[in-house]
């Protein structure tokens, strides 16, 4: 049985998965449209792989349902879902040539040779392995082996391609190259790709939409640009590189613009999540935090360390309230120097305090 190739969307409706007392997935509800590339992003243990495995059928769900258009698929066995899967370890058969590895899924599905052969050749061309197809996996580089795994996944013409950290075993340069390849392959297929990663750069560069998970639940869903600029919660902000967190009190507010008092000085920011009390936490990226004039709005700190990084310096400082802050500087400041650090107000994201 093959699933409709003309499907419009995949829907997770209240999908949960428990392992004993651990709620690995909590009530995941999400619609993914055909053609979309979605990244599941989050720290280790947040439930990314569990979500992927439930969609793939490798794990049963505890509650909820998974629909491909109007068809319920979470009750179908893995092989009947017909999804392409790519994992961190390529799991290729070492004694089979690239061509045979790629054709294996079609053979298992009983597709006749004359129908399978052109599909295998097309998959080989899509991943650009034309000149390597006669080789054994052991004769290929890590990147090439991962391409074989991708070709094997796409040869069956799947409605969904599921990838679980497929680039983690590759070196940094290959990872970058393969990102481009994966994006290109996804576009040429027009299917849905769901890509699990804990690497925010990978998610930002690959996905049309990012789903941030934490403790098994969705924290935020959005386009990469939205997530990067406007994380909805402090933990998402921290995950997206807003490494500085500054504790303050709300001093004045006008719409979503807010002034915080931090140890007697003022910091201007933008409210991201409804403030419930008068304490707040500001989150700022190190690259947006810079030394400012002593009479400008900002936070008084003492420099603890500074290092040269080519075009500028990267510094570490401590505020009067004990917050550790990272900043960028045009000048080499001496450890022990007093410096006021500030940022453009729209770069200072404000969340409710503890
Ligand atoms: P990582 O990035 O480390 O792979 P992840 O985000 O993919 O993490 P999952 O592997 O989905 O996270 O795990 C989610 C939670 O479910 C964790 O608390 C994990 O310990 C638990 N878990 C996962 N698989 C099992 C299992 N087979 N039995 C018991 N608990 C499990």
TrEMBL record:
All copies of domain ABC transporter, residue ranges: 10-240
InterPro entries: AAA+_ATPase (IPR003593), ABC_SmlMolc_Importer (IPR050093), ABC_transporter-like_ATP-bd (IPR003439), ABC_transporter-like_CS (IPR017871), Mo/tungstate-bd_C_term_dom (IPR008995), P-loop_NTPase (IPR027417), Transp-assoc_OB_typ2 (IPR013611)
Entry's Gene Ontology molecular function annotations: ABC-type transporter activity; ATP binding; ATP hydrolysis activity
Major subcellular site: membrane
Keyword set, alphabetical order: ATP-binding, Nucleotide-binding, Transport
Membrane-protein topology: Peripheral membrane protein
Gene3D superfamilies: 2.40.50.100, P-loop containing nucleotide triphosphate hydrolases (3.40.50.300)
Database matches in PROSITE patterns: ABC_TRANSPORTER_1, ABC_TRANSPORTER_2
Localization: Cell inner membrane
Keyword Chaperone: no
SUPFAM superfamilies, sorted: MOP-like, P-loop containing nucleoside triphosphate hydrolases
Example of a GO cellular component annotation carried by this entry: ATP-binding cassette (ABC) transporter complex
Family named by the database record: Belongs to the ABC transporter superfamily.
Name of this protein: ABC transporter ATP-binding protein
């Amino acid at each position: 049985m093959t699933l409709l190739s003309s499907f419009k969307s995949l829907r997770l409706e209240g999908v949960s998965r428990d392992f004993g007392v651990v709620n690995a997935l909590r009530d995941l509800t999400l619609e993914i449209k055909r053609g979309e590339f979605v990244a599941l992003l989050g720290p280790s243990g947040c439930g990314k792989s569990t979500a992927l495995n439930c969609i793939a059928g490798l794990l049963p769900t505890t509650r909820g349902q998974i629909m491909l258009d109007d068809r319920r698929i979470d009750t179908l066995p893995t092989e009947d879902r017909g999804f392409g899967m790519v994992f961190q370890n390529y799991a290729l058969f070492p004694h089979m040539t690239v061509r045979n590895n790629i054709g294996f899924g079609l053979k298992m599905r009983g597709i006749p040779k004359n129908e399978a052969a052109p599909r295998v050749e097309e998959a080989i061309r899509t991943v650009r392995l034309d000149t390597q197809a006669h080789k054994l996996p052991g004769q290929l580089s890590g990147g090439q082996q991962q391409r074989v795994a991708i070709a094997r996944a796409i040869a069956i013409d799947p409605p969904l391609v599921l990838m679980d950290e497929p680039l983690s075993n590759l070196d940094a340069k290959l990872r970058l190259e393969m990102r481009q390849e994966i994006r290109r392959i996804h576009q040429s297929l027009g299917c849905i790709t769901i890509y699990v990663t804990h690497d925010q750069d990978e998610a930002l560069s690959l996905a049309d939409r990012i789903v941030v998970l934490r403790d098994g639940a969705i924290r935020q869903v959005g386009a990469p640009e939205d997530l990067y600029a406007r994380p909805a919660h402090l933990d998402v902000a921290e995950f997206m590189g807003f490494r500085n967190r500054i504790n303050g009190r709300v001093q004045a507010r006008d719409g979503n613009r807010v002034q915080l008092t931090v140890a007697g000085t003022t910091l201007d920011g933008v409210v991201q999540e409804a403030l419930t009390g008068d304490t707040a936490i500001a989150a700022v990226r190190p690259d947006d935090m810079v030394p400012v004039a002593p009479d400008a709005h900002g936070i008084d700190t003492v420099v603890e360390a500074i290092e040269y990084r080519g075009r500028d310096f990267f510094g570490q400082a401590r505020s009067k309230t004990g917050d550790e802050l990272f900043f960028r500087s045009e000048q080499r400041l001496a450890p022990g120097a007093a410096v006021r650090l500030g940022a453009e107000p729209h770069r200072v994201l404000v969340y409710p305090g503890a």
